[in-house]
Automatic annotation (TrEMBL):
Family listed: Belongs to the tellurite-resistance/dicarboxylate transporter (TDT) family.
Keyword Membrane: yes
Keyword Mitochondrion on entry: no
GO MF entries: sulfite transmembrane transporter activity
GO cellular component: plasma membrane
Subcellular location: Cell membrane
Protein name per its UniProtKB record: Tellurite resistance protein TehA
Taxonomy of the source species: Bacteria, Bacillati, Actinomycetota, Actinomycetes, Mycobacteriales
Main location: membrane
Length: 346
């Protein structure tokens, strides 16, 4: 039987902005496998990402029109609010993908959409938390999703610095400024999130997949630095060249150091604590950091001439693709009723 009108209305009302993480993940895995040599696979994933972005954007506009209170409640919820920035990051990642294929006009259009959304959301979301402060949640509501503030900002830097000529030169300075803002935000937001982790009880239910964004935020910052390093025609980039490389090395090292901790946390959550839950859309927030880590490593290696980083980044692309396939299959099984019944019956 098909979905009833009431079911469809409830699905639209409950649609969360975090679903755009699937677009982020698909776009970066497309870039990862293309860089590893599987061009047509990367092209196919980019098309899937563009279709998903279009569909989710239409659905979110419909939700805003039909369920404005639900949208406003999400924006004011510390556990959900920053997930609106997955829209910005998704648009930025797709803009980058279009640039690498030579579609300058489409890339510019998506970058403009991402920049406008970023200008609105990066002020509106935190301002809403401060104005409507709830002492019951306060800073203890900070979790991995807050790092999307950084990811959204750095996605603009990556997209702007990847544009084809002559646009890349015109947008290099704004890209550098966005990268700088993103690095500052990482230090501030990471401190808030860690403070929340140390001031509340850590349980399997609170150790959610979006904590992988801790690593993803470092990886996209490294990628943005790598693209900027290549823009040697811009004076401001030239004078900050040593700082760009130094910061990228520090961020890459810290992101790499985080991976074992995140894996151990997952083992503790699922193996030792036996945490079980049905499909969670936040699983896409694991795929994106895995893909971004490989791409950032590879392109930073190219920029600074470290061949081992290039080789490692290309190899890691297949890990990212495997993660994407697992979560994509789980998504289809969960949301296609016929398949779900078949799997359940088996």
């Amino acid at each position: 039987m098909g979905e009833s009108d009431d079911d469809r209305a409830a699905s639209l009302r409950d649609l969360k902005p975090a679903w755009f993480a699937s677009v982020m993940a698909t776009g970066i895995v497309a870039r990862a496998v293309s860089g590893a040599g599987w061009q047509w696979g990367g092209d196919a994933l980019l098309i899937i990402g563009l279709l998903a972005f279009a569909g989710l954007t239409i659905a979110m506009i419909a939700r805003a029109i039909r369920h404005p209170r639900a949208m406003a409640a999400d924006a004011g919820n510390p556990a959900v609010g920053f997930t609106f920035l997955t829209f910005v990051a998704g648009a930025g990642v797709l803009s980058t993908g279009l640039s690498t294929h030579g579609f300058a006009a489409a890339a510019l259009a998506l970058l403009a959409v991402a920049a406008i959304a970023w200008l609105i959301l990066c002020y509106l979301i935190p301002a809403g938390f401060m104005v409507h402060h709830n002492a019951a949640v306060g800073m203890t509501g900070a979790d991995g999703t807050w790092l999307l503030w950084v990811v959204g900002t750095q996605s603009l830097a990556v997209a702007a610095s990847t544009l084809p000529a002559p646009w890349a030169h015109r947008f290099t300075t704004p890209a550098l400024l966005a990268w700088s803002i993103g690095c500052m935000l990482y230090g501030i937001v990471a401190a808030l999130v860690l403070s929340a982790l140390f001031t509340r009880e850590l349980t399997p239910a609170t150790l959610v997949p979006p904590y992988w964004i801790f690593m993803g935020a470092t990886a996209i910052s490294v990628l943005a630095a790598a693209k900027l390093i290549e823009r040697t025609s811009d004076h401001l980039v030239v004078v900050t060249h040593p700082a760009l490389i130094g910061a990228a090395v520090v961020l890459w090292a810290f992101g790499t150091w985080l991976i074992p901790a995140l894996l151990i946390a997952g083992v503790w959550r699922h193996v030792f604590e036996h945490f079980r839950r049905g499909f969670d859309p936040s699983l896409w927030s694991i795929v994106f950091p895995i893909g971004m880590y490989g791409v950032g490593t590879r392109e930073f290696g190219v920029a600074v001439g470290e061949s081992w980083m290039v080789t490692f980044g290309r190899g890691e692309a297949w890990v990212a693709l495997a993660a994407w396939v697992v979560v994509a299959v789980a998504t289809v099984v969960r949301y296609v009723p016929g398949l779900r019944r078949v799997v359940t019956a088996e």
